[in-house]
């Protein structure tokens, strides 16, 4: 069982007690219990279907309950389904209790807001657009409660800094919840109409179709990630000294892309590019990747083929998009001294210029068996020094800004991967005949020689 901090367990217990308090007046209400039961069964059925990977969270049913029922009764609609919901991580029981309590509080608050603004009368005798006002307020309250509670979990369970825990949560969830709210309002209006509950249930059919399509999309994305993960694990097994390097380059590439204002799809593509940039090492003999000592010119030429090997490996993977160009060209340099084609300036694809900066930064800030990691400020200054000749100044500036703003995660030591053993000598690009500031390195700026 995964450890959950004690303070997070206390937080969950407090939220659960608050949810129970919201249910307290149930015994004094004159409520159509058949309606409560039907909505609860519908929501639980949606959650059970979700467990089979077919649909999504059935918020329209919860919000329809908030629009149709008194707050305590609406709260009860969420509980059985949430306790049956799919949980992919341990401890499953605690997570289900958290889910049930969180949704119960959100539905209760939404129902209170809806009823306080006269929403019950608006549903019985709908007068648009007035009926939208209490429903919109209920959706906002529902979303705010979920956001507030989720942020608390991030702080207490995941130890996310308070200043970052709630950032973007509300904005990301509002659009989806608003669509569910409209569907819930349609259900409530039809439920109260002469057509009755059966007509209201028809609203769920197009929603479930859209959820199924969305689930298909997520399954496809999961397959993409599994493909990438398998390739990266193969590289890590073959070249133990760079284990973890690919993931960190992907993270740094993503940070650069976001700082430059790229859209989410492109940010994800550049993350893939960073993760896969060294996949071509699968085509390089293992003895060269693990050689203790300098490389001969012939051996260096073999290693410098890895971008082309990598491009051949990923060329047929359509979803990678421009990430494929980054795999091929991430060792090109603005001044034309890179490889494999010696491209100059804007001839180098933008994705490759992003990955080149991320690659060099991680190479400098990671500890290897033959040298310690350089401090992040030193690495950033070196990138700035080489901007314009080796690296694109825009990419360097973006990385410098975002790292100085948010910091950089811990470095990974090669010794953590391969265990004890003799430290290898730097390769020929580190200690060869060419002076270090002028030599041609694969990863780091010219002043910081690094093995390919």
Rg (CA only): 28 Å
| Straight-line N-to-C gap | 41 Å
CATH superfamily of the largest domain: Hypothetical protein af1432
| CATH architecture title of the largest domain | Orthogonal Bundle
What name does CATH use for the topology of the largest domain? Hypothetical protein af1432
Shape: elongated
Order of helices and strands: HHHHHHHHHHHHHHHHHHHHHH
Percent of residues in beta strands? under 5%
* Secondary structure tally: strands: 0
Percent helix among the residues?
Answer: 55-70%
Structural class, from secondary structure content? Answer: mainly alpha
Q: Tally the helices: what do you get? A: 22
Organism: Streptomyces flavalbus
EC number: 3.1.4.-
Enzyme class: hydrolase
Protein name: HD-GYP domain-containing protein
Write a structural description.
The chain has 452 residues and is mainly α. The protein folds into two domains: 6-202, no CATH class; 219-438, Orthogonal Bundle (Hypothetical protein af1432). Helix content is 64%, strand content 0%. The protein contains 22 helices and no strands. The chain has helices at residues 6-23, 33-51, 59-68, 71-83, 92-116, 119-124, 132-156, 162-165, 169-192, 196-202, 204-238, 245-259, 264-276, 286-289, 297-303, 306-314, 323-329, 350-365, 376-386, 393-406, 415-418, 428-431. Helix 4 packs antiparallel against helix 5 (92-116) and helix 5 packs antiparallel against helix 7. InterPro entries: Cyclic_di-GMP/3'3'-cGAMP_PDE, HD/PDEase_dom, HD_domain, HD_GYP_dom. Residues 220-415 form the HD-GYP domain. Keywords: Hydrolase, Membrane, Transmembrane, Transmembrane helix. GO terms for molecular function: hydrolase activity. Residues 440-452 have a biased composition (Basic and acidic residues).
